């Protein structure tokens, strides 16, 4: 059943209410104030992914990086809390666990899916720093209670969100071990030859070298499988026994995206407008879209403002050229220091 009734020709439905979705909705609402805006999200709140790594190591509290949606609802945005099951492009409907929602334009900004199934043996006993909600709370407590041993972390194969994130994570683990004088080490597996993005690779390598007493960095190596029962990770360079496993599975898009024929593994879009190449009524950005831009929250927020302008244009608004996105990022190399990378496209 339709849970919001007919769209009446002016409804934008946004899948995902994080950096990409919210920052698309806001400029669109300003340009087309009489349009109906519907945001669909699975959680009742938004956790800032860029600040998650600081929360994990006790540098910031969870309440400081969490926001509810009351202020958006006060603007007249409709919030639907439900799981997205399918996109019916022919019927212009999103099918959710709460019912169907029709659309006149659709933005896909759900973020990535952690493809656990692509790492044989990997189970939910693994605590991934990109797994929002209770897993990051569990990981926060695991780090605080960690008394020693081997921590295995990685950079995933293929495109993934927040390219510097895995290296920040490994270095903050090293800092945590030293600060608390733990008998422990971090083993980092990287399928690449050096850290990314290129602009901060040298800085990361310098920081890794400075922590080599507790941080073992293994480049050009992929994780092959996990023996959860034996607490062993098998890599191309050999087997590693772990006391805490915190790896990032490959990043993929949600299953409904492929099923809707929008793309595999990412949605092909025009990089100027973020309009889907398969369906002119559909737009996508951030982790979901195949673009030359970095998969960072900052870039998603910048891209969202551009997408919002082009979607508004589709609804009849007159807009000036919103330009191209840019990115500014401050990857941490310790709890006290960060590098900076800036990119313009």
Characterise the protein shown here.
With 345 residues, the chain is α/β, with parallel strands linked by helices. The protein contains eight helices and 23 strands. The longest helix has 18 residues, at 297-314. Helix 1 runs parallel beside helix 8. The chain has helices at 19-31, 49-56, 70-74, 134-145, 165-179, 198-210, 255-259, 297-314, and strands spanning 11-15, 36-41, 45-47, 66-68, 78-81, 84-88, 93-96, 99-102, 105-108, 113-114, 148-154, 183-189, 215-218, 223-227, 232-235, 238-241, 244-245, 251-252, 267-268, 282-284, 289-290, 326-329, 341-344.
SSE arrangement:
Elements: E1 11-15, H1 19-31, E2 36-41, E3 45-47, H2 49-56, E4 66-68, H3 70-74, E5 78-81, E6 84-88, E7 93-96, E8 99-102, E9 105-108, E10 113-114, H4 134-145, E11 148-154, H5 165-179, E12 183-189, H6 198-210, E13 215-218, E14 223-227, E15 232-235, E16 238-241, E17 244-245, E18 251-252, H7 255-259, E19 267-268, E20 282-284, E21 289-290, H8 297-314, E22 326-329, E23 341-344
Helix pairs in contact: 1-8
Short description:
With 345 residues, the protein is α/β, with parallel strands linked by helices. It has helices spanning 19-31, 49-56, 70-74, 134-145, 165-179, 198-210, 255-259, 297-314; strands at 11-15, 36-41, 45-47, 66-68, 78-81, 84-88, 93-96, 99-102, 105-108, 113-114, 148-154, 183-189, 215-218, 223-227, 232-235, 238-241, 244-245, 251-252, 267-268, 282-284, 289-290, 326-329, 341-344. A five-stranded parallel beta sheet has the order 5-2-1-9-20, covered by helices on one side. The chain has a four-stranded parallel beta sheet with strand order 13-12-11-17, covered by helices on one side. A three-stranded antiparallel beta sheet has the order 6-7-8.
């Amino acid at each position: 059943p339709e849970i919001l009734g007919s769209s009446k020709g002016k409804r934008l439905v946004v899948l995902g209410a994080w950096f990409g979705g919210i920052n698309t909705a806001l400029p669109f609402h300003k340009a087309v104030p009489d349009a109906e805006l519907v945001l669909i999200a699975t959680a009742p709140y938004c956790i800032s992914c860029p600040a998650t790594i600081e929360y994990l190591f006790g540098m910031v509290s969870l309440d400081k990086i969490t926001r509810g949606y009351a202020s958006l609802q006060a603007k007249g945005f409709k919030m639907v809390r439900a799981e997205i099951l399918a996109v019916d492009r022919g019927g212009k409907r999103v099918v959710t666990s709460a019912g169907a929602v029709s659309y006149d334009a659709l933005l896909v900004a759900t973020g990535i899916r952690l493809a656990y199934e692509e790492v044989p043996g990997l189970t939910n006993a693994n605590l991934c720093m990109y797994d929002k909600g209770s897993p990051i709370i569990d990981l926060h407590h695991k780090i605080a209670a960690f008394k020693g041993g081997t921590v295995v972390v990685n950079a995933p194969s293929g495109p993934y969100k927040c390219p510097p994130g895995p290296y920040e994570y490994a270095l903050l683990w090293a800092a945590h071990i030293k600060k608390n004088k733990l008998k422990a080490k971090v083993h980092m597996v990287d399928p690449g030859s050096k850290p990314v993005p290129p602009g901060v690779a040298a800085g990361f390598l310098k920081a890794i070298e400075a922590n080599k007493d507790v941080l073992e960095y293994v480049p050009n190596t992929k994780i092959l499988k996990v023996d959860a029962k034996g607490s062993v990770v098998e890599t191309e360079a050999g087997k590693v026994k772990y006391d805490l496993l915190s790896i990032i599975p490959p990043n993929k898009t949600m299953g409904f995206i492929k099923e809707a024929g929008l793309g595999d593994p990412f949605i092909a879009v025009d990089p100027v407008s973020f309009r889907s190449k398969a369906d002119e009524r559909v737009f996508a950005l951030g982790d979901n879209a195949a673009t030359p831009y970095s998969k960072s929250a900052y870039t998603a927020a910048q891209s969202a403002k551009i997408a919002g302008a082009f979607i508004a244009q589709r609804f009849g608004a007159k807009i000036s050229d919103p330009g191209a996105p840019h990115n500014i990022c401050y990857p941490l190399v310790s709890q006290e220091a960060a590098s900076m990378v800036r990119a313009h496209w």
